[in-house]
Amino acid sequence: MTSTEHHPDRSVLRRQRAAAATGRDGRGLISAMPPILQYGFRPFFLAAALQAGVMIPAWLVLFHTVPVSWHAHEMIFGYLGAVIAGFILTAVPNWTGRLPLSGWPLAVLIGLWLAGRIACDSAEPSPIVMAIDLAFPVALTAAVWREVIAGRNWKNAPVAGMLTLFTTANALHHLENVGFGLDGIGIRLGLGTVAMLIALIGGRIVPSFTRNWLARQGSPSLPARFGLPDKAALATTAMAMVLWTFLPDWSATGILLALSGTLLGGRMLRWRGFRTLGEPIVAILHAGYLWLAVAIALLGLGILVPGVFPATAALHALTTGAIGTMTLAVMTRASLGHTGRAIEADGWTVAIYILVTLGALFRVAAPLLPFQYLPLLMTGGVLWSGAFLVFAGRYGPILCKRRASA
C-alpha cells in the first residue's frame, strides 16, 4: 500500500512510459475533461465535506426525533464512504500504472453515492432503500478489484479486501434496520475496518511524509523504519477489531483493545512527530494517528471498567477524533498535491485542523460530563461540522479548477 502522493514503482513507470510512447495513455483525454471529473478525489472529497458539514447540524436539530442508527449510517457509510472512494480512486493509478476512473464512469459513481444518500434520508428502511444505497459501494468495490487484478498489483489486494468488508458492513447494517437481530455488527465491522485502514495506510503515509519533511529540514533524527514493533501493533489491532466486531462485551476483547491502543501509541512515538509541530500539514497526521491509539485503548477500557469510561466516549474518540482528523489531514494534503499546489497549510487549513480537534474533544467529553451533555454535544457538533464546511469553502474552488501547473 502506498499513499496517493507516492511515486509509482519501476514496473508501473515502465507501463506508463510504454503506453505514452504508443499513444495509449489517454492522459490528454483526461486533461480535456471538466476538472471535477478528472480524478476521484475531486468530486468525492467535496461531497464528503458537504455531507459531514450538513448532516451533523441536521442531526442536532432533529436530535429527539430521528434514530441514532440513521445518524451512524450516514456518517459512516455516507460521508466516510465518499472519503474512502476519493482516496482509493486516486491511489489506484499509482498502484497499477493504469488510467484513473474519470469522466462519465466517475459521474455515474458519484450519482450512485448521491442516490444512496437521497434514499436513506427520505425513506424508511426497506429492501429497496438497501438496494439503492448498496449500488455505490458494490460498484466501487468492483472497480477497485478490477484495477488490482488487471494491474496485477497483488500487494494492494488487502485494501480491496477491506473495501469489500466495508461494503459488507453496510449491507449488515441495512439488514439490522429491517428487522434482523444483528446487534450492531454492521456498525462495528464498518468502524473496525476503517480503524484497520488507518492503522495500515496511516502507518505508511505518516512516517513517510514525516521523513521527507524532516530530511528537508536537515534533521538528524528521522522516523524509525518498519520493524517488529509495527508488525506487533498491526497484528494486535487486527485481532482486536475482529473480537470487538463479534464479541464487544467480552473481557478478553477489552484487554486486547487496550493492548492494541498501547502498541499503536508506542509505534507512533517512533515516528518523531514532536519534531513536526512547526509544520501543521504534517503534524495533523500524527494527531490523527494519536486519536486512533487513544480511541482503541478507550474502547478496551470501556469494556473492562464501563463505569469509568463510557462506551460512547470511546466510540466518538474513534469517529470524530481518529476518523475525522485523519480524513481531513488526507483530504487537505491530497487536494493540494494532486492539483499542483504547494503542500502547505495556510490560515484556513490551520483553522480546519483546530475546529476538528476541538469538535472531537467536546464530543468525547460530553458523556464524561452528563450534567453538561447537551451543551457539549451541540458545541462539539458545530465545531466539528464547521471544519468540513470550511474545507468545502476553501478547497471546493481548488477541486473544481485545473491543476495549477497546467
Helix content: over 70%
- The DSSP helix count reads 14
Characterize the main sheet.
none
> Roughly how many Å is the radius of gyration?
20 Å
CATH class: Mainly Alpha
Report the sheet-strand fraction: under 5%
Q: What would the CATH topology be?
A: Cytochrome C Oxidase, Chain A
Cα distance, first to last residue? 28 Å
Tally of discrete structural domains: 1
The average pLDDT is 90
Class per helix and strand makeup: mainly alpha
Are there runs of 5+ residues with pLDDT below 50, and where?
A: 6-24
Short description:
This protein is mainly alpha-helical and 406 residues long.
Core attributes:
406 residues; mainly alpha; 0% strand; Cytochrome C Oxidase, Chain A
